[in-house]
Amino acid sequence: MNAFGRLMVKLGATPPPDSDFWYKPVNGSKWFVSTDSAMRITAVWACVRVIAESIGSLPCGVFRRTADGRQLDRNHPLYYLLHDAPNDDMSAFEFWELAAKCLCLHGNFYARIVTNMRGDVVRLVPLSPAGMRVARDPETGVLVYTYANQMYTASDILHIPGLGYDGEDNLVGHSPVSYMAQALGMTQDAEGYGANFFRNNATPPSYLTVPQALSNEARNNLQTWLMSNFGGVRNAGKIGVLEQGAEIKSVSINHRDMQFLELRQYQKAENNNIEHQGIDFATHTIRPWLARIEKRINMQLFGPREAASYYAEFNMDALLRGDAASRATFYSSMRNIG
Q1: What is the pTM of this model?
Q2: Which residues pair with 69 in a beta bridge?
Q3: What does the longest C-alpha to C-alpha distance in the chain come to?
Q4: Alpha-carbon distance 242 to 220, whole Å?
Q5: Rounded to whole angstroms, how far apart are CA atoms 316 and 39?
Q6: 16/7 Cα distance (integer angstroms)
Q7: Cβ–Cβ contacts within 10 Å for residue 177, how many?
Q8: Domain enclosing residue 276, as ranges
């Protein structure tokens, strides 16, 4: 849980719906599934990284509609913010990379829209999805955003929702980590089991039998002595000497019957098998994310009158740079799907 979430709990307030407070596993796993712990899963890290970095690397330009088509307008006030630096602390790469990461993990991205006295947008400041609450005012019907005990209207917040947003019952996108908590918890359990297994020198569970009964103290002392002298990787290969008829017996574990190896392989293959398949990756993975972001930029950052003449768009050529055949195939596929 982040600092804001901890503060809300300490004050007795209900944590926001995307707070890590709610990411407790539903499958009885001992693991706490949060966005941070999810990113420690190699497949999740790889998928989020390639999507976020790919989107961050694409330049976003402002175009003016003309009789002949369109023209890039570098003089538009929004061009510098979207293409170069949305604020004083972030480049456009870092800003859009963060936006994609938030969408992949939280299902939402928020940025404060800062304007000058004339109403021109001068900065876009990202806000943590975990600290945001979204509700509709029952009297006015307008959306109200609450962040760090401050209330904002929709004109103050650039909100890019992910899958699940419908503008009525669901005012935010679904959190993939929350919805996939059981699968992620199983993956964490599998990784934890594997780590513990090899930490114990890849030795299956064992138990010690002795001919006479032991007191609790003697049993604990014996167990501590065995673990400190023969347990773990550092003690691998040591030869132990047992006295007074003591015997060590191992519990047989068949990883093939457990399908442990198949599970680990499936968890990677299921989530990371399309990372660099060129045109498919650009068309079916990156392009939908970009369309989602572009629509919100055009809807919220351009006024109704200005939107008739201007729009923002990411340049997909940067993703297919150096591959003329892939670009031609991509443009053809995009024309076919409208």
Answers
A1: 0.68
A2: 66
A3: 97
A4: 16
A5: 27
A6: 12
A7: 23
A8: 16-184+266-336
Say yes or no: 27 and 112 in one domain. yes
Number of domains in the chain: 2
Residues in the chain: 338
Q: What sections of the chain are H helices per DSSP?
A: 3-10, 35-38, 42-56, 77-83, 92-105, 176-179, 181-199, 216-230, 255-258, 260-272, 279-280, 287-300, 324-336
Q: Are residues 170 and 24 in the same domain?
A: yes
Cα 155 from chain centre = 26
Q: Lowest mean pLDDT of 107-116, 168-177, 305-314, 315-324, name the range.
A: 315-324
Q: Quick count: other Cβ atoms within 10 Å of Cβ 61?
A: 19
Q: Which letter does DSSP use for residue 120 in this model?
A: -
How far apart are the C-alpha atoms of 249 and 109, rounded to whole Å? 55
Q: Token pair for residue 101?
A: 């990461």
CB 193 within 8 A of CB 263: no
Average pLDDT over residues 48-76: 96
Q: Do 89 and 159 reside in the same domain of the chain?
A: yes
- Kindly state whether residue 189 falls inside one of the protein's structural domains: no
212 in the Ramachandran plot: left (φ > 0), alpha (ψ -120 to 50) or beta? beta
Q: pLDDT tens digits for 257-287?
A: 444 445 555 555 544 444 446 677 888 889 9
DSSP 22-64: G---SSS-SS---HHHHTTSHHHHHHHHHHHHHHHTS-EEEEE
Closest CA to 100 of 47, 148, 21: 47
Give bridge partners of residue 314 from the DSSP assignment: 60
Tokens of 76: 């538009």
